[in-house]
Amino acid sequence: MTDIDAAEARRAIDYYYDHGWTDGLPVVPVTESYLAEFLATTGRDPDEVLIPMPHLNKNLTVRLAAINAALAGCLPEYFPVVLAAWDSFLRDGMVTRSIWQSTTGTAPFVVVYGPARQRLGLNSRGNVWGSGFRANATIGRAIRLGAINGLGLKPHVFDQATQGTPAKYSCCIAENEEDSPWPSLAADNDIGPGDSAVSATVIRSVLHIEARHTTAPEQLAADFADSLCRTGALVRARASGYVVLNPEHARLFDKHGWSKADVRAAIADQGWRTYRDLASAGKEAVAGGTGWRLPADHPDARPQETPEDQNTPVQLITSVDAVQIVVAGAPNAGVSSIVETFGPSDRGPAITKVEEK
Asked: Which residues 6+ apart lie within 8 Å of 141 measured at CB?
């Protein structure tokens, strides 16, 4: 690249900055011919609305999604995965309820399954939450830039996050199907082995679980349940989340004859806190309007009976559908994670097959 070419590239990047079209990092300048390469990967109408946001008078179209995928640094061949992610967000239902505008600071979370993982170079192993892999970084970033530029969800404007989360930059992983003892989450939801798929939902945080201490599956399940139900995570009445197991933990469960369904059931069964625990954090009651947790003496609290025994369990995970399991990461240590979701806790994940032209 000549000095003139470099200067022109910087000028274009600065132009995007000046117009507020970035997430704070440089973006890839997009020409009509480059945009056409993205749109050529799908048979969908460029004007098709992927995400309607009528209360903001905004619509995210296929064309806008393609522009932001290009801005994010995606290769054109990534675009069918980006589209499947947007379709999953629509099915999930939380984005159109203004959750990305929330003071809670929610972020998009995408998981990719099937052959597209290897074909596109998605990381499913070591440093799965970290940097270093173009497909993961840019597919996740395409969603965030689409929210900013397509739906107007800019910080300090319509994005009212109090603190936010690093996941707002990008949060896209792939399931490590090769090192898992079980079928993938996509296979659990009727996606065939030759098909690629994407699940997408709205999350609050990714919680590190250091669990190298035990080889007892019951203790490991208790650790995950306790982490899901920690009082600091309780905004709503119920807890829910993805348990992202590293292969070592998944194999430990499998070695003891536990299926994925067994793990989910055990976590759900142990997903409670005592009334005393909740009361000590001022979260023993539920608001009548919002359904959020608050103290029993709060004027918005629903009437409830205070148990005589303060150690009475209060069930916080009331359905196995509140617990979704993905296997990801390297098989080299007992380190897993909890992804705290913000959506419904009584139904399965929103998973969409990747449609390629």
From this structure: 23, 72, 73, 169, 170
Would the pLDDT of 94 be above 90? no
Name 245's bridge partners.
327
End-to-end distance of the chain based on CA atoms, in angstroms? 34
Residue 173 near residue 328, CB atoms below 8 Å: yes
For 143-187, the DSSP string reads HHHIIIIIT---BTTTB--SS--GGGT--EEE---SS-SS--HHH
User: What confidence tens digit (pLDDT) does each residue in 232-245 have?
Assistant: 989 889 999 999 99
What average pLDDT score do residues 185-202 get?
96
Task: Check: pTM over 0.70? Answer yes or no.
Answer: yes
Of the candidates 327, 356, 350, 49, the one whose C-alpha atom is nearest the C-alpha of residue 200 is 350
329: region left, alpha or beta (phi > 0 left; psi from -120 to 50 alpha):
left
Residue type, 87: D
Could you give the CA distance from residue 10 to residue 18 in angstroms, rounded to a whole number? 12
All residues at 6 or more sequence positions from 299 whose CB lies less than 8 Å from its CB, including other chains: none
| Distant-in-sequence, close-in-space partners of 140: CB < 8 Å, separation ≥ 6 | 108, 110, 169, 170, 171, 172
Q: Tokens for 97, please give them.
A: 């309820």
